[in-house]
Structure formats: C-alpha cells, structure tokens
Amino acid sequence: MRGFAMGMLARRFQAAGFRTKVFEYASLAHGADRSAERLGESLRQLSDGGGAVHLVGHSLGGLVALLATVDQSLPGRTICLGSPLLGSEAARRVAKFASWTMGESGDRLIAGLDHWRGPREVGVIAGRLPYGLAQVLGGFGDDNDGTVRVAETQLPGIQDHLVLPASHSGLVFSQDVANASVGFLRTGRFAFGSR
Fold first, then answer.
1. pTM value > 0.70
2. Other Cβ atoms closer than 10 A to 91
3. Terminal CA-to-CA distance of the chain, rounded, Å?
4. Which residues of 41-68 are buried (b: 16+ CB within 10 A; e: fewer)?
5. For the chain, counts of helices (H) and of strands (E)
6. d(Cα 64, Cα 78) in Å, to the nearest integer?
7. Which is it for the CA torsion 183, 189, 192, 194, positive or negative?
8. Is 132 within 8 Å of 106 (Cβ atoms)?
9. Cys-Cys crosslink for 13: which of 18, 57, 106, 185, Cβ 3.0 to 4.6 Å?
C-alpha cells in the first residue's frame, strides 16, 4: 500500500498528541532491506532533536521498521501491524507462480526474521478476520487476517502481542488498533484485547 493508506491512523495518533510523518518506500523496486537503510537515515535525522521517535509499520512496513532499528539505540518504540515477521506463507505460495509480483521484497517476505534482538520495545497487533489474499490461495488452517497468519506475527523477543478482529487491510483503519497502539507507545504494553 502507498503511504496515504496510513493517513487515518496518522490522524488518530495526532489526536492523541503525537506528531506524525509518513515514510513511503518502493517495496517492489528497492526491497525491504534497502528501504530499511533509507528509514534508518531518516530516523537519525528525526532524532537529532532528542526525544523518542516511534515507528508504526503495516505488513511489510513492520519488517522494514525492525530492520531499520535492529542496530540503532534511538529512543522510541515500534509497532508492527499484520507483519509476517516470521515469514509469509502467502508469499511462499505466490512465489511458486508469480514471484515477480513481490519484486525486490519477495525474499524478505518469505524469510522474515528469526528473533528480535534490537534495543527497542516492539509490539505486534495481528488481525483475525480472514478476508483477503488467503482465500484466493486456498485459505489457511489457522487464525489469520486474510493475508498473514497470526502465528507468523509472533516473533520471539517482542515486548507484547495483541490479536484484534480486523482484516489485513482493515488494521490501518480500525479504531481499536489505533487505541491499542497509542497505549503501547505510551507504556510499552497493550491495554486490552486477547494476547
């Protein structure tokens, strides 16, 4: 999705007192790792004034956020929304017949990460309304948001994990997701929902 898709979520963070900036990246042309390098540079510029710089990434954006901060001690917390942090079953299935659709990000989507070892507290919100790509790909046998399985979001080493009734795309429009995210950015824990 393009950066404008994060607009409603950004407005909800602003209403809660946060200043926001949407970071756009070209996932097909540049890939997750190169985009993470760009994000890391942007973070260093934003943090020059001191204070925390929080990150909220959706789907691949969560992986990009973690890659950008794994070796940085910049203050702030990170939230991943529907991010296939352990690798994506949907991406593995798509790669069998149309890997070109994932561009330079395909390998990272398939591989994911093995553990969070960075200094930031990371919170993950997964969805459990199974409407999306998975239906076209034959479905998943467990809880999912239609694109990412809940199990794929449970990266060892994260601070907190929450599952909410939202589809993959719906995560960025959900008021419950925004409320839970604000709570995590302020305290390092999600305040409600199922773990």
1. yes
2. 25
3. 27
4. eebeeeeeeeeebbbbbbbbbbbbbbbb
5. 7, 4
6. 11
7. positive
8. no
9. 18
Residue type present at position 143: D
- Collapsing DSSP to helix, strand or coil, 56 comes out as strand
Which residues fall within 8 angstroms of residue 90, CB to CB, at 6 or more apart? 84, 133, 134, 137, 147, 148
Report the interhelical angle of 31-46 vs 60-69 (nearest 10°).
Answer: 60
> Which pLDDT tens digits describe the chain residue by residue (195 residues)?
566 778 999 999 999 999 999 998 765 556 788 889 999 988 888 877 678 999 999 999 999 999 999 988 889 999 999 999 999 988 878 767 655 455 566 788 888 999 999 999 999 999 999 987 666 666 788 899 999 999 999 999 999 999 999 999 999 999 999 999 999 999 999 976 444
| 69: amino acid identity, one letter | T
Nearest to 159 by CA among 133, 128, 183: 183
